[in-house]
Amino acid sequence: MWSRIRVLHNRFAVARFRERIVEHRHGGFDIHIALTDPLACGWYDHDSDMREIDLLRRHGLRAGARVFNLGAHQGVVASVLARAVGPQGHVFAIEANPRDADLANRNKDLNGLDQLTVINAAATAESGTCFFHTLDGRLERSGNSGPGVVELPAVSIDDLADQHGQPDVLFVDIEGAEGEALRGAARTLATTPDCFLEVHVDWLGAWGDTVDTILNFFGKDRYDRFVASEGEPEFTRLENAAHLLGRRFFLVAIAKRG
User: Which residues contact 171 (CB under 8 A, 6 or more apart)?
Assistant: First the structure.
């Protein structure tokens, strides 16, 4: 019953929201954004410096790069990434929520980004199908088909790379399923792409993961690792993971080359 109430409340909030197009500077680029719901308004209706973009642009996020953006929401970050790689590069934006994927395509068109492709799917360890909760924005591991849950295609990072080419950058924000997606990226990670992850510590346990699980995908012999959080927004080199336990944090892993 509560799930049905949440679905109805969400639909009502979206229906009564006064849609508008805004322009803000995100990650050093001016981006046009269609605001169609209160959540998007709170997240995107302001300028943001996006320090992770600045850090990645010093390395693999360059003109001509190929980027996989997993958990693209409504395509605002994907639009920033697409501007960073330019017309000669390409961004593949993977978004599970059908409505958000449609809006990502709309924001793509608003910004004239032919170098951005939006794919309505979820990133998982193995390609196939999966269940996704549109209200929580999270994968349903149990396969629950209740209110707000949709079944949709699932794709592994390695299969994406087989189809579209190896990425230079992985940009991941998938609400606790980070480890699940990375388990499908063995071949891709062997090529040491630069990576950004928003790590949802409280939700990792649903997939049997921990902070160490995530960090182990980016061994310090292959990557320089930097972390930040909302309370400590400047990226600093990771020395000890103990202070990250129980917190949501941001990880940038820069491949060691040469």
Answer: 56, 67, 68, 69, 70, 77, 81, 195, 196
